[in-house]
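Dissemination and training. As part of the outreach component of the grant, students in the summer workshop were shown how a complex can be specified as a set of sequence lines and then modelled as a single object. The example used during the hands-on session is reproduced here so that future cohorts can follow it. Participants entered these lines:
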Amino acid sequence: MIGALRRRRAARRWEPRADAPAWRVMLVTIAAVAVAALVVTWVFVAYGVAPGEAWATIVRRTLLEPRGLSETVRKAIPLLLAGIGLLLAFRARFWNIGAEGQILAGAIGATAVALFTELPGPLVVPAMFLAGMLAGAAWGAVPALLKARMGVNEIITTLMFNYIALYLVRWLINGPWKARSATGFSYSERFPAEAVLPTLGATRLHWPTLAIALVLVAVVALLLARSRFGFEVEVLGRSPEAARYAGIDAGRVTLLLAALAAGAAGLAGVGEVAGIHRRLVEPTQLSLGYGYAAILVALLARGKALAVVPAALFLGFVFAAGDVMRVSLRLPSQLPDVVTGLVLLLVVASEPLTRGRWVRRDPAEAATAPAAEAPVAPPAAATAGAPAGGAAHASPDGEG
Amino acid sequence: MNPEEPLQPRLSLRGIEKRYPGVRALAGVDLDVMPGQVHAVLGENGAGKSTLMHVVYGLVAPDEGSMTWEGEPLRLRSPREAIARGIGLVAQHFHLVERHTVAENLALGFPDAPFWRPTRSLLPRLQAAAERYGLALDPGAQVRDLSPGERQRVEIVKALMQGARLLVLDEPTSVLTPAEVDALFAVLRRFVAEGSSVVFVSHKLAEVEVLADVVTVLRRGAVVGRRSAADGLDRRDLARLMVGRDLAAAVADRGRARAAAIAAGPVRLRLTDVRVDAPGRAQGPALNVASLEVRGGEIVGIAGVAGNGQSELVAVVAGLRAPSAGTVEVDGREPGSGRRRRGARSQVDAGVALVPEDRTKVGVVGDLSVARNLALRHAHRRPFARGMWIDWQAVGRVSQSAVEAYDIATPSTGTPARLLSGGNVQKVILARELDRDPGVVVAVHPTYGLDVAATSQTHERLLAAAGRGAAVLLVSEDLDEVLSLSDRVAVLSGGRVVATMAAADADPEALGLAMAGVSA
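and obtained this result:
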C-alpha cells in the first residue's frame, strides 16, 4: 500500500518488458564493450602511447598473427569451462564466486594423478581430467551443501573457499609436493611426458581441453533446453516458491548444479597444469584470475549457453591483449584487470536497459496498479520464457 | 466522555465507494465516529474492512464519497496527511524495522527528528506517552526480540506520540494472548476517556461486545447493520448480520440431494491426529486435527478466520511441509511416507491437486510460458517426460488443447504467464490441476480477486471435479462461497476443527460464533 503511494508520485515509471529482444541485448552488450574500449583508449593517451598504433598492435598480435590468435583461444579455454559452469549455476541463482578456487582444486587433483599414480600411459590424461573434475566438484559441493542444509550464503563461502584453495596449493608446492630442484620459486616436480597434453603445432593451444570445453557447452545447452533437470533449474531460478509447489527438490538441484559448475571449473584447472605449466605452480600463475573473469563470461552470455563461446573468446582476447600491452607497449601489467573491471561494470550497469523502458504514467492506473514483479536475476532475465541454447525453435515456446 | 456536550463527529464518512477490477470493495459506506467512542467495524475477511481503514488513513483514495474531520472536509492524499490531522493506524501487519531498537523505530516516524542521535530527543516524549497510558516499553530493546504484543505497543505509542486523536486498529487482537488483549483494551479505554476516538476493526464478536460503544457491520463492502451498546449488543444478532442468512436456503436443496450419494463414496482423503508445530513460540501447535475425512465426490469447506491453521492444513495435505505428527492418507495410503517423502511430488503422484492461495507467485512462474506452466507440476511424468528429457512437443500439444478446453485467453501458449489476467492465470492453474482427474483437490481462496464470470467458471470446475469423484477441500474466506459449494463445512479455530456440519443445515449464527472462537 505504501509502495503504491510512492509510485503514484512518479510521473514516469520503469516498465519491465515482456521479453528482451535478442537484438536489443546484443546492442546493449556491444555498446557497453565499446564504452569500455573508449575508456581504455583514453588510458593509452594518458600513458603517452599513440592510441591508433596501440590498437593496431593489439589487434595484430592477438587476432591476425597465428601465434597471437592461438594465445587468445588458449586463454579462452579455462574461461569457457568455468564460464559455462557459472552460467548454469547463475540460472538457478546459485551465486558461485568460487570458480577460481575450483580451478585450483582441479589442478591439485590432476597433479596428484600425474605425479603419484602408476597408470598405463594412455590412461593418465583421462584419469587426470576425471580427478580434476571430481576435486573441483567436491570443492564446490561444500558451499552448496551448506547453502542447501543450513542456508549459509554461498557468495561468502565460495569466495572464502578460493583463498583456502590458494593457500592449499602454496602449501603443497612449498611442502610435501615441492620439487627437489626448486630453489627460488616454488613448484612441484615436472609431470611425466604421458601426463602432458598435446598442443596444436608450435603453439601452446592444448586442444583436448578445448574440445572438452566445447562439448560441455553443447551438453549444458542441451540440458537447459531439453532436460527435466534444465526445466527444474529454470523454475528454481525464477521462483523458489513455485519450485517447491512443483515438487522440485531445491537442495538436490542446487547441489547437482553446483557440483557440475565446480566440476567444469576443475577441468579448467587440469588444462592449465597439464597443457601449459606441466607442473603445479604458484596459484597466481596457474590461474590468472580466470575464475573471476568467468563470472563476467557468464554475465556477458546473459543466460544463453551457446553465447558463452563468443563471451569467453572476447575475454580471452582481453587477457591476450593484456600481454601485448605489457610486453610490446610497455604498459603496466595491471591494465588488463582495469579492462575486465570496466567491462564488468558496464555490462552489469547496462543490464536494465535490456529489460525495460521508461513510460509515462497513466494517472488512472496509479491507484490500482499491482506492483510490478521484481525482475529476475541478471543472467536468466534476458531470456524471458525462451530456453537457452540452440534448441529453442523445437520447443513450444518458440512457436508464438 | 461528557454526554452533555453537543457532539460533532470527529470523523464522518458519506457514501464511500471503492471499486477494483471486478470487485466492489466498498459500496457506499457511511460511518460516524464520535469523540470518546470506540467504534467497532465488524465483518468477515473480505467484507471491505481493511479497504475502509486504508481510505481513512489516506492509503487508498475512494472513487466516490466524502469525508469530514471535526466538521471540515477531509481529503487525504497520503498517510502523512492523515497523521498530521491526528489519525493513527495500527495495521494488522506491523511496519517496524526488525534490527532497530524501539526508540529508533519511533524516530523513523518523526521526520523532524534530528539527524544526529535522532532518538535522544524522543525519549522524554516516549516516557510521557508510555506512563500516561500504561504502555511499558524498553526503548533500547531490539524490535526483533519483541513479542507481537510488544510490537503492537510500539505501533500504538508511535501513533500516540504523533498526536493521534483517532486511532484505527486493524484486527489488533489477532496476534495477542488473552492477557495482552486485556491490557490493550485498558489502554484503549483510557484513550477514549480523554475524548479521543478509536475505530476497532474486528471479526471477533466477544471482543466487540466487550469494548465497542457502536458497532457497524460490513458485508461485501456495504453497511448491513448498526448497533449501539446503549441498546445492548447481542452476539447472535451480530453473527447473523455478519454472515448473512439469505443464501443458506438456496444451498439446502442441492445439499440434501447429494448427501446420499456421497455417503456411499470411498474416503479419499483422511487426516489422523495431524499436528503441525508452530516454529519458535510455545503457543501450541499451529494445526492440531484429530480427524478429518473427505469422501469422493464430496466438497468439504474449511471456514474460519485466516491464521487459524488453514495454511498449515493445506501445506500438509499438498505435501509442502511434513506434519510434526500424524498421518495424511490419500486413497488409504500415505504418499511417499517416511524416508521416501519427496514433498509435493509424492502428493502429485498420488493424485493430489492444489490450487494455491498465491496464484502469481506460487501457482505459476510468471516469466515462463503458458505451456511450461501447464507442465509445471507434471514435467517429471508421461506424457511430458521421456527419461531424463522433456518432450516439448507433447507439452505443446497438451497445452494447446488445455488452452482450448479451459478457454484461456492468451495470445499463444508461448506467452509468459505474467502477461495474463488474474482470471486467466487461474484458468491455467485449474487446467493443470484438474485436467488429469485428481483424487484429491485442495483449492485455496480459488476465486479471490476474480470477476464474476471467472468466479462462476471456477465454481463449475470445482463442482465438476467433485462430480467426477474427487474429494475436494475448499479453503475460502468467503463464507458465501463455502456455504454454496460445500457439502460439509468444517470450522477451524486455533488450529483445531471446532465444528463440522452439513452445509445444508449450517446455521449462519452457529457458524459465525464458531469462527469467532465462541463455543456455542
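Chain B touches chain A through 56 residues (CB under 8 Å). Students were then asked to discuss how this feature might be tested experimentally.
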